[in-house]
Write a structure and sequence with these properties.
The structure holds 3 protein chains of 3 kinds. In chain A, α11 runs parallel beside α12 and α19 packs across α21. The longest helix of chain A is centred in the C-terminal third of the chain and has 26 residues. In chain A, β7 and β8 form a beta hairpin. In chain A, 53% of the residues are buried. Chain A is globular, with a radius of gyration of 26 Å. In chain A, the strands form 5 sheets. A 6-stranded mixed sheet of chain A has the order 2-1-3-12-4-15. In chain A, strands 6-9-5-10 form a 4-stranded mixed sheet. By secondary structure, chain A is α/β, with parallel strands linked by helices. Chain A has 21 helices and 16 strands. Helix content of chain A is 41%, strand content 14%. Chain B is 66% helix and 0% strand. In chain B, α9 packs across α10. The radius of gyration of chain B is 25 Å and the shape is flat. The two termini of chain B are 22 Å apart. Chain C is mainly α. The radius of gyration of chain C is 25 Å and the shape is flat. The two termini of chain C are 27 Å apart. Classes of the chains: A alpha/beta, B mainly alpha, C mainly alpha. At the B-C interface, α1, α4, α5, α6 and α8 of B face α2, α3, α7, α8 and α9 of C.
């Protein structure tokens, strides 16, 4: 009896297996890219009306159908291409991308935002999802995109794969109609008003900061210093080590170093442990959520020095609450103070000029048109539509520069919500160009966030590993488990050493972290960096 | 129905009752206070809320209903409510019928192989293929982007079958035999005779189904790849939450919304929970003590 | 949906063997499937519907278990992905933290079972003794509310409350005469905080099932006990508890099956590097491992491992229960 049963079940199972097993041959459908290379786009892009399907990272909530957005309507009018949008919210991109890939049918254009193709771009090509001829398509039919890449060496490198080909299209970072790296948008900042209240001028060394913090504590500030929740701080840059980025990797010229085995790391921890025992550090720093806790903590006047602040450039609380709304509680950005006299300040910020990915899938029937349509988003016209909306309605050109109209800026709805109806990229997507000044214009009308970025980006020495480097599939396979073990060990040691619950000596810790495979992680990244430099 | 017998109330029982009442009141407070906290937090000043470490008994600093404005101005919310109510209703019907049938089948003593089959089914509670293979099956069945993709997978749960079965096993076989002699078929026995005696358990199954469907958003992420107009409430709430909590990923929006992140989170709980809290008292109605099952035995 | 088919009364069915209690089996009656089908036609038709459901929605996707032995690529599918044998398991089990992770997983699982399995039962039994209706219903309704507070908010509250200066931390400090500290940073506290948090959210909701079982206890039994002179205590011990025993045992068996799969979500919301030593469990570690990209294979391997342990626990508990109490699931 059991056998009969087993048989029935096996049959049912087998049948459904067959059903579940699909032909995974992606095949590069559509016609080959045999046309002539173009030097500029001619509008409309196509004589008869054509359609493209775009899988699009979009998190706006104001507009129900993306084709209702004014800039999208206008773009359709100009290009003659109707887009069938499949909007995907940022937080679901990972899951939905994986699922879409299983289906074997791909939309023409896929823009997963900052989520990378699972396993890397090369895998996307060998999987048969990303078109093999992307390089040719880009070079032939995307003149505006190519012009940007030619204008910047960094952008070109970041938009090129290790094999020297452009296998995907990248979102380019810049201001209006140019390319400009984001700069270092996070760093140390202190409360100017409180420091002045103590009768002190800005300390220049770590020792002076210590004295200032002690004085602050004596004058009623319970916890004058906040660490980042992982125990790191941009103050560690004073010792020349990275502690915020939990990869614990840093750069020295063309060499990748492990931050956690540098002597500076041990000295930083020793200092923090000392400060913690003196009660200078907030004992709740492990649950201090920068985004949520900062505004309130500023109002409570309990913190003098913040070890991790983001400029409005990318984050928002900083600008909205301290630099703009409340000039009295001004957070003054500073570079890393010196440990010894004569120490030069250090910064740690990836110079990103090309980031999120866009690609044309193997299912696309008209890759030439798709490439041209994407390219349109890199034109001046396209950028204006995506970021500024409709001329005369949401923006005016003043001295050749776009300025938002009063209607946008002074309105019952927040400007960014208002703009969602007029310009595609305000739904938290950065399609084509990521225009970093548009948001400043909307929100402040002054330049303080940019000033913060300028201050943090000033130091000559930058120890951040470049953002564009990529590991091969085999490499990431080989180090994933080591990396997790290493990161677990380091993050645990950092916090427990600082709060005094772990007294393992730094030498013992170093030996242990190397034993867990730290060196292999470093070496792997070194290889990736070498390939990046050779692009 | 209260029991009508008179008991001597012994001193030890009085002590027990006093202790029990105190304990229950404490538990009640422990459960109620956090909810009160959530409601008050949702209308507090957001800056104060973000640093507050205490239970909030009254709105902090001032009453600020911006969080609710942020949520309620979002028109898709109402569509979400409508969809969720539809899913709950459909699920109740499908799950109800299927679970009663399954409970009936596996509680029949005359069905010799019931335990073997129950084991086969229970196995699925422990082992599952994960989300991608399940998605592939749903896709092959052409259920994607349809209401059925939300209500059919998962309509039969082993757990529900088990409690239904346990409850039905408690009913005497004599009852079934008597009904059969009167000419009743399996379906009449199942729905007219056995089900009414298992109302309490059935009510629990319905409650679990409604609550499960009410909180469900994973099915929507997986099985509604393009049909946003079918999104349930929880999906829309996630969008709102995400909108208000976006952090470094956002170049836009330096508006005040991020400081409301926590307040919106609390308000979302209030908005999404209140309707479902009302369900339980209705279910309790079916927990009627004093039903004398044995009486029919005679 | 299989629809109702009018059926003639079948005398064979009407007088089918009955009166056998579940799990007892019928050892001395020779049986064969054919006869059983003939005798219980409708039951078998209904069974077929149910089995079909499970075959389609649960068994068919189980091919996905193969992912545990592959380097799964969504595009290549389950049958096209590269076979890597035990690599995914090795990746995990050769790591330096495996001992600690298993210890924490078991400790939290067992502690949760020991405390949070009986708690709803006791709660339901106490509630059952209260006859003041309004009070009973109020407590019942109120206790189920915390279940609906999302894990993110509930855990966020706990983290805030146990911070230095938070209400719970201050209370503990007063009771022990120490200074208020961040309780989560004292490593050993984590297990207790986690389990109590679970209790707060799950007590009322977990008791619903027992309350429903209690409500259907046969009143004749109480009458009989009363006639025999049993007081309230004796009734509780000799009538109430035995009546809901099958439900208790079923729930226990199910819980044993899940003892090893301590979910990652709440852990992740509560833990931090400061308490990793006691808070890091298998699922949370795997979550950190897969964070760079969705690592379906690794998750699948760990899931499979948990499932196998769960099955062993479940079957063992079932067998023990069968022997000791005569009640069992299978």
């Amino acid at each position: 009896m059991k056998k009969v049963l087993a048989l029935i079940l096996a049959l049912a199972l087998g049948l459904s297996l067959l059903a579940g097993c699909k032909g995974s041959e992606g095949g590069s459908g559509g016609k080959e890219s045999g046309g002539e290379a173009i030097t500029e786009l001619t509008l409309p892009l196509t004589k008869e009306k054509k359609e493209l399907t775009v899988w699009f990272n979009y998190s706006g909530s104001v507009v129900a159908d993306l084709n209702e957005i004014e800039s999208v309507k206008k773009m359709e009018e100009l290009t003659g291409v109707h887009i069938n949008w499949i909007p995907i919210e940022q937080q679901q991109v990972g899951e939905k991308l994986g699922i879409m890939l299983t289906s074997g049918e791909y939309p023409d254009i896929i823009y997963p935002g900052s989520t990378p193709y699972p396993g890397g771009v090369e895998k996307g090509v060998s999987d048969g999802v990303i078109r093999e001829d992307m390089n040719e398509l880009i070079e032939k039919y995307m003149p505006n995109y190519m012009a940007y890449l030619k204008s910047s060496e960094t952008a070109r490198k970041q938009a090129t794969s290790d094999n020297g080909k452009k296998q995907i299209i990248k979102v380019l970072v810049g201001e209006d109609f140019n390319i400009k790296a984001e700069g270092t948008y996070q760093g140390l900042a202190y409360r100017k008003d409180l420091l002045e209240g103590l009768g002190l001028s800005e300390p220049k060394t770590v020792a002076e900061w210590h004295d200032a913090l002690v004085k602050a504590k004596e004058n009623g500030m319970d916890t004058p210093f906040v660490l980042h929740e992982n125990g790191g701080s941009h103050l560690s840059l004073s010792w020349g080590v990275e502690t915020i980025n939990t990869n614990y990797l840093q750069l020295d010229g063309n060499k990748v170093l492990g931050s956690a085995v540098q002597d500076g790391f041990g000295e930083y921890l020793e200092t923090m442990r000392q400060w913690y025992s003196e009660g200078l550090i907030d004992p709740n720093f492990t649950s201090f959520n920068y985004y949520l806790s900062t505004p309130g903590s500023v109002e409570a006047n309990q913190h003098l020095l913040y070890s991790f602040v983001l400029s409005a450039f990318t984050g928002n609380n900083y600008a909205a609450f301290h630099m703009v709304n409340n000039q009295d509680e001004y957070l003054q950005p500073i570079v890393s103070p010196a440990v010894k006299d004569g120490d030069k300040p250090v910064q740690s910020g990836g110079r990103v000029e090309a980031k999120d990915t866009i690609f044309i899938s193997s299912s696309c029937k008209d890759p030439e048109l798709a490439a041209k349509w994407i390219d349109f988003n890199y034109t001046k016209e396209g950028e204006l539509l995506n970021w500024y909306g409709i001329e005369g309605e949401t923006y005016e050109m003043v001295d050749g520069k776009p300025q938002f109209t009063e209607k946008v800026l002074n309105n019952d709805t927040p400007p960014s919500d208002y703009l969602q109806k007029y310009a595609l990229n305000w739904g938290n997507s950065w399609f084509g160009k990521h225009n970093t000044v548009a948001s400043n214009k909307v929100n402040t009308g002054n330049n303080q966030q940019q000033d913060a970025v300028d201050i943090w980006s000033a130091p000559e020495k930058n120890i951040a590993v470049p953002q564009g480097i990529t590991l091969t599939e085999d490499e990431s396979d080989a180090i994933t488990s080591k990396m997790t073990a290493v990161q677990t060990l380091i993050s645990e040691y950092v916090i427990n050493y600082i709060i005094g619950t772990d007294s393992t000596s730094f030498e013992d810790f170093k030996a242990k972290v190397l034993e867990y495979g730290y060196q292999e992680v470093i070496d792997t990244y070194q290889k990736a960096l070498d390939r990046y430099n050779a692009r | 129905m209260e029991r009508s017998y008179k008991y001597k109330t012994s001193p030890s029982r009085i002590v027990f009752l006093i202790v029990a009442v105190i304990l229950l009141v404490l538990i009640g407070l422990a459960c109620l206070l956090p909810l009160w906290h959530v409601i008050m937090a949702s209308i507090s000043n957001p800056t104060d809320l973000n640093v507050s470490k205490d239970l909030i008994f009254y709105p902090l600093r001032n009453v600020d209903v911006t969080a609710y404005k942020l949520i309620l101005q979002y028109q898709r919310l109402w569509r979400g409510y409508r969809n969720t109510i539809m899913y709950c209703t459909l699920s109740c019907v499908i799950t109800g019928v299927m679970t009663v049938i399954a409970g009936y089948v596996f509680s029949r003593n005359r069905f010799y192989y019931r335990n073997a089959f129950m084991l086969i089914i229970s196995f699925t509670m422990l082992f599952n293929g994960g989300m991608i293979p399940t998605y592939m099956v749903i896709r092959k069945l052409h259920m994607l982007d349809s209401v059925w993709a939300i209500v059919v997978p998962g309509c039969l749960s082993v757990f529900n079958i088990l409690i239904m079965r346990t409850s039905m096993q408690g009913i005497s076989d004599a009852l079934e035999e008597a009904a059969r002699l009167d000419g009743a078929n399996d379906f009449i026995i199942m729905f007219r005779i056995i089900l009414p005696l298992c109302k309490a358990t059935f009510a629990v199954v319905m409650l679990f189904t409604v609550v499960g469907q009410w909180n469900n958003f994973m099915s929507a992420i997986l099985y509604l790849p393009t049909k946003q107009n079918l999104y349930p409430l929880q999906m829309e709430l996630r969008t709102i939450l995400y909108q208000s909590t976006k952090e470094i990923t956002s170049a836009s929006d330096v508006s005040a919304s991020s400081v409301y992140a926590r307040a919106v989170e609390y308000a979302a709980i209030v908005v999404s929970t209140l309707p479902i809290l009302i369900v339980y008292p209705f279910v309790q109605k079916y927990f009627v003590t004093g039903m004398t099952i044995g009486a029919v035995k005679a | 949906m299989a629809k109702k088919k009018k059926k003639e009364l079948d005398p064979n069915q009407a007088f089918a063997p009955s009166g056998y209690r579940s799990g007892g089996g019928i050892r001395n009656v020779p049986h064969n499937l054919f006869l059983d089908i003939k005798r219980n036609k409708v039951v078998y038709i209904l069974l077929a519907v149910i089995l079909a459901y499970f075959a389609i929605f649960n068994y068919a996707p189980m091919v996905g278990l193969l992912m545990a032995f592959e380097k799964f690529s969504p595009v290549k599918g389950i049958f096209g992905s590269k076979w890597v044998g035990m690599k995914n398991f090795k990746d995990f089990f050769e790591g330096p933290y495996v001992g600690r992770l298993i210890r924490n997983t078991i400790a939290i699982g067992v502690l949760d079972l020991v405390i949070n399995f009986p708690a709803p039962i006791i709660f339901a039994l106490i509630l059952n003794e209260i006859h003041q209706k309004a009070f009973k219903k109020t407590i019942q309704t109120v206790s189920y509310m915390p279940y609906f507070i999302s894990a993110v908010v509930a855990c966020g509250l706990v983290v805030k409350f146990v911070e230095a200066g938070g209400p719970i931390s201050v209370m503990v400090a007063k009771l022990t005469g120490t200074e208020s500290a961040n309780l989560l940073n004292k490593k050993g506290n984590f297990w207790l905080i986690y389990v109590l948090q679970n209790m707060w959210q799950g007590l009322g909701y977990g008791s619903i099932i027992y309350l429903s079982a209690l409500s259907s206890v046969d009143q004749e039994l109480y009458e009989a006990a009363y006639v025999d002179g049993a007081g309230k205590w004796k009734q509780a011990i000799h009538v109430t508890i035995p009546s809901i025993m099958p439900m208790i045992i079923m729930m226990l068996i199910l819980r044993m099956g899940a003892i090893f799969s301590v979910g990652a979500d709440k852990i992740i919301l509560l833990y931090g590097p400061a308490n990793y030593e006691y808070s890091d469990v298998i699922n949370s570690y795997v979550y950190r491992m897969g964070i760079q990209e969705t690592n379906y294979s690794l998750a699948s391997a760990v899931g499979l491992f948990n499932s196998i342990i769960g099955t062993i626990m479940l079957l063992t508990t079932n067998a023990i229960s069968k022997r000791v109490s005569g009640t069992s699931m299978f």
